[in-house]
Amino acid sequence: MLAVVTGAGVRVGRAIAVALADAGYDLALHANGSIAKAQELARELTAKGRAVSVHRADLADPKQVEALAKELCDRYRVIDVLVNSAAIFAEVAFADIDAESYARMQQINLNAPFFLTQKLLPSLGGAEKPAVVNIVDIAVERVRPKYAHYTVAKGGLVALTKALAVELAPKIRVNAVAPGLVAVPESWSADERDGLVARVPFKRTGTPEDVARMVVVLARDATYMTGQIVAVDGGWSANL
User: Fold this and answer.
1) Is the full-model pTM beyond 0.70?
2) Is 102 annotated in the active site?
């Protein structure tokens, strides 16, 4: 079985790749700025007996998204799982978001998953039980100020998940994981982080591995689930 993971060099993407490898998948790892980390991870997973390839593409460039899809389809006639994990995250006041930064946010966080999934349909269709798992964000429901363009992009990815679940059924399952306070940005102050943690029933942040475990479930085990957005957030989305 083969899984493609975008943004696999660091943080949540890396944890997802490791979890899928431990679950028996060979990997095609995508990265851009963290390509060295992805190559290092590939060596680690290869040492564990997995077949791993590494692919570089700047998802902000539509032409590179298309080239990545062609490279993957040419190399792999069968892709069992696609995990759209790569994303950018930026804190900017709404009044200061210009057209360029807005477009870049939408391109990486929404358009790239849209068109990568579309272009990989031939290889996904060759799998026995293909699955797409998108990484969204509980912030679509628990909105934070100064992230309007990010929230719009992740909200679009939620809608895309549901749309494709309907259109690609019954052959391809499409679900999403919505992390809560997982891999908190280093730029956040301790007071900001602690203030949000106080609203989480578990009273702690999650880990990339928490997200990764759910990705494996959706990719491999949840064979009668599609169109679902699964929160991995310590109960935050249930808390008024």
Assistant:
1) yes
2) no
